[in-house]
Amino acid sequence: MRTVREAGPLIRELREEQGWTQAELARRASVSRSFVIDAEAGKATVEASKFMDLFQALGFEIAIRDVGTGNVRW
Q: What share of residues in the chain are helix, strand, coil (percent, to 5)?
């Protein structure tokens, strides 16, 4: 993923795979349901720390990959 807009559908997909509602994900990530709605819509102005909280609540972490070499950095 290169943009928040691309991550929105992934968040929705991962949430649905868990069988969670938006409210359930919000509770588990300690964010508001409206934040989950904005994140799933790919809203570019979502707060980065809360955005990462969503992935963490879903059991995922974000890694940075060098597009040239493919090397992953933490």
A: 55, 5, 40
What value, to the nearest 5°, has the Cα angle with vertex 17 and ends 16 and 23? Answer: 35
Whether the per-residue pLDDT at 66 is higher than 90: the answer is: yes
Inter-residue contact 44 to 5 (CB < 8 Å): yes
| Measured CA angle at 49 (ends 31, 14), to 5 deg | 65
pTM, to two decimals? 0.86
Residue 28's pLDDT is 98
Range list of H helices, 19-68: 22-29, 33-40, 48-57
